[in-house]
Amino acid sequence: MRKAGKASWKTGGIGQLMIPLIAVGLLILFNLIRDPSFFSIHTTPGNSGGIVLTGNLISIINGASELAVLAMGMTLVTAACGGQDISVGAAAAIAGSVFVRVLKTPDVITGGTMILAFASCCVVAMLFGAFNGTLVAVFRIQPMIATLILYTCGRSIAYWINGGATPTVSSPIINAIGSYIPGVPIPTPIFIVLAVGILLALVFRFTNLRLYTQSVGINQGAAKLNGINSTMIKLLSFIILGLCVATAGCIGVSRLSLINHETLLLDVEMDAILAVAIGGNSLGGGKFRISGSILGAYIIQMLTITLYAMKVPSTNVKAYKAIVIILLVVMGSPVVKKKIADFWKHLRGSHPASVGKEAA
Amino acid sequence: MQEETVLSMRGICKEFPGVKALQNVDFTLRRGEIHALMGENGAGKSTLIKVLTGVYTKDAGHIQMEGTEGEANIRSPQDAQNIGISTVYQEITLCPNLTVAENMFIGREAGLLTHRKEYEKKAEQLLKNLNIPARARQELSSCSLAVQQMVAIARAVDMNCKVLILDEPTSSLDEKEVQMLFSLMRDLRSRGVGIIFVTHFLEQVYEVCDRITVLRNGELVGEYIIQDLPQVQLVAKMMGKELDETIEIDASGKKNTPTGETVYEAENLSSSEAKPFNFKISRGEVNGFTGLLGSGRSESVRAIFGADRVTGGKVRMNGKQVRISRPIDAMKNGIGYLPEDRKRDGIIADLSVRDNIILALQVMKGFFHPMSRSEMEKFADEYIHTLNIKTASKDTPVGSLSGGNQQKVILARWLLTHPEYLILDEPTRGIDIGTKLEIQRLVLKLAEENVSVTFISSEIEEMLRTCSRLIVMRDRKIVGELTGDELSQTNIMKTIAGGEKQ
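ok -> structure tokens follow
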């Protein structure tokens, strides 16, 4: 059984968001001191007519879209299985390839083709999710090992889908998804994240997904004795992650109007896991907060953009990112949390005592 | 029998976080005797064995071995073996795909040179000497379990062991194989080996042992010569009751007569953990499963609830045949189950008191029908109040509550589902006396409200106070059923001990 230590109670409460919120605050403060105009938003004429909003803030929120969507699904898998899916990047390449393959079939891309393409890509991603989920839930393979299979072969499968080519798709609809809908000044991916978030919130509202997932993640044996089918819940978490993968893959393809199976969302899996962790969720499963993970995704992106703005060479960005991440993760560790709590107690406790001394 | 001490353990103490596993335990083994180490599960038998074999290091105490100067320094199983203590465990720890001879000599060849011919000859001789029906060049997996066990013993004997520990060696053997093993044990006894025999089969103890040491709750109850301790007395010692102190509890207020209408009935029900058994319970009846820990009482009720894999049998609810293979089936048929191990199987520690209370009802309502927040709050408030659960708030994680209050939360969880038949496995274990009485009263109140209850407890008084019928189990079988005037501590112990034989 997991230790029911004081630190783990905090998971799931508002307290869980403390560290990520502080991180956001510090990043904003740092940028404002460095360059007061960092967060200013400009209006510029867009490609497809009309006026669009640009600026660092927009690029942070826009750029983190795929990561945010993946982090949501990753949170569920983490909570239910106590492990992570490292194949999301490769699976997104497959999903993106399927998306493009279906789009390229007819001569003209219509709204109908779009829906068909997205639906096929969702089905494929869900199937691969179910594959991972079966390995984890039915065959009880460690999630990281189970998903290592798809991680290894995913991009090869993606290569095969479009016959090794990296085809481009050009259509106003693709542009509308990847950048701006004509007349709307905010990039579309931001709305997609919002939509996925709302959808997930509705699922939580109208089903017992949260209760079941948390129960299975905290104490699988007890969950089973209360009639919960833990195998189904784990499988479901992977299938939902599959949907997130499909969505992220489509956003990624639409941004560039092309599919490059080698580079699409490369290394995104580690960022997605990191987003879950920065969001204060226990990687050992159990209680979770989706909002924490979304915040985590934006923190990672904000960090990247900040470093680029500081003219850090792109080869060095990862090293600087690592330093900040070490700080965040250590700050969020139970040991440090406890130390901070003790320190607070000590401060409060010693205060009256010192007053007493002075009086003496 | 010689009275020469070969091993003496004095004042052994061992503490685990929160548990005193052994407190000041003495144990003496003499040359050429078979000494039974008895006690319920958790009495400290295995801990004592593990201290002796170097798996655990003792916190205090002395161990002296014959032939070793001063205190025996046992830090690892290897040390134990070097001074002549060998162990044969319940599960065979040999290599099934090697030959019998290889198994007997593996890991102790002198250097890299192994003379196959030589050790096969030696093995053959030893097997013959000990009357073990196996050939040296036979693959071990082709021998029966009993023979494999005997090979393990032969290996131990050949290492010149003075003390041989047999930990539940008979649990997977049939009657004939047990006899084979016993004759080997007697043979070794006549050669002067001291044997420590750990088992939960009482008859076997009386068949083969010379002496019994009884442990309870990590403390020494006593050491007895087998003739001085009849089987009933042994059970009493293990349970910590004195036969003459069996004051019958007055029958006032308890045992309302059940209406006779059968609520639940099982015929030849079996699971992966429980042997086939028959069982039924009437409306408003409180019955109990009793027997020593490990006698199969928990496994039986788990089979009723579908908690383990159900392997056979017919089940009827209110006369209608139903299929219960998973907990959800049982729940939908109006059965509730409070598991024996609260921490492992009961609470979802990090979830709030509220979520823990509504969990079972919520699952019964189904995945797509979550309760509204206000409904949850209402139910939580209601049961926190009814059961007097002491918690800071409904949002407090249940793991931070005291044991008694955690148990009440799980009780609340099942009461909320309004079961027809409620199974309570050790609901009062590790709970303060006040809460214990509250739970007992609750059980009787439920029975008045026509709920059928199965109540399992290690404390016989508690069962006598609440149950109108007791099913007695031993060695995973139902060996008796006591009702009405038959319900007394003496009778229970007699039945557990195999009263018919006394």
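DSSP finds 17 helices and 19 strands in chain B.
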